[in-house]
Amino acid sequence: MSNQGRYRQRLSTFAANWRALALRGIVALLFGLVVLFWPNLILAALSLLFGIYALVDGGVVLVPALRTSDRSVRRWLPLAEGAVGVVAGLVALFWPGMTASGLLYVIAAWAVATGILKIITTIVLRGEVENVWLLAGSGALSVLFGAILAVLVGSDLPSLAPFIGVFAVVVGLVLIVLAFRMRDRLRRT
């Protein structure tokens, strides 16, 4: 197979997963809106919401990566990103007696890890996917969000809820836009 043929095959595989990317965006958007409209959520409710969000987000990335026969870095990056989400979700849901600081550290670690993996994915896919800068931007926002959240860990959780909500809404919108651009690209090929 020629380089052009391999390029088109990889592009088609990536673009075919636009629905998974859109689902991730919708889940992030819904999580963000709930946190924004109810900023005084108690710790247990925020833990539950984040845990469900991280589990769904991780699962949406993990399942297609497990199903693919590709054994290259294109498979291992989504596997790692999905695993980070699933682990963070499980920790948020099942860590008995988690403090507000503990939850903020879990969210911050999740954001930094998934952000770095999105940036690495962007580097691997550069030149293969149009508008991949949206994924890079999402990754950079995640890293920045995680770093800021780690610095603010001592703050009151309800005061940070709007910050968490806005981040989730912005990332959700970016992922939805990227998904629909990928879908349009797939239709043109």
Described by strand count, sense and barrel closure, the largest sheet is:
none
Quote the average pLDDT.
83
User: What is the count of β-strands?
Assistant: 0
The separation of the N and C termini measures 18 Å
Give the overall silhouette: globular
SS field, number of helical segments: 7
Helix coverage percent = over 70%
- Uncertain segments of ≥5 residues (pLDDT<50)? none
Q: Rg to the nearest angstrom? A: 17 Å
Order of helices and strands: HHHHHHH
Derived from helix and strand composition plus strand pairing, the structural class reads mainly alpha
**What is the percentage of strand-forming residues?**
under 5%
Briefly summarize what is shown:
The chain is mainly alpha-helical. The protein has helices spanning 3-16, 18-37, 43-67, 73-94, 100-125, 133-151, 157-188.
List the main descriptive attributes of the protein structure presented here.
single chain; 189 residues; mainly alpha; 84% helix; globular
Helix/strand layout:
Elements: H1 3-16, H2 18-37, H3 43-67, H4 73-94, H5 100-125, H6 133-151, H7 157-188
Helix pairs in contact: 1-7, 2-3, 2-7, 3-4, 4-5, 5-6, 6-7
Walkthrough of the structure:
- Helix 2 runs antiparallel to helix 7, helix 3 (43-67) runs antiparallel to helix 4 and helix 4 packs antiparallel against helix 5.
- The protein is built from 7 helices and no strands.
- With 189 residues, the chain is mainly alpha-helical.
- The chain is globular, with a radius of gyration of 17 Å.
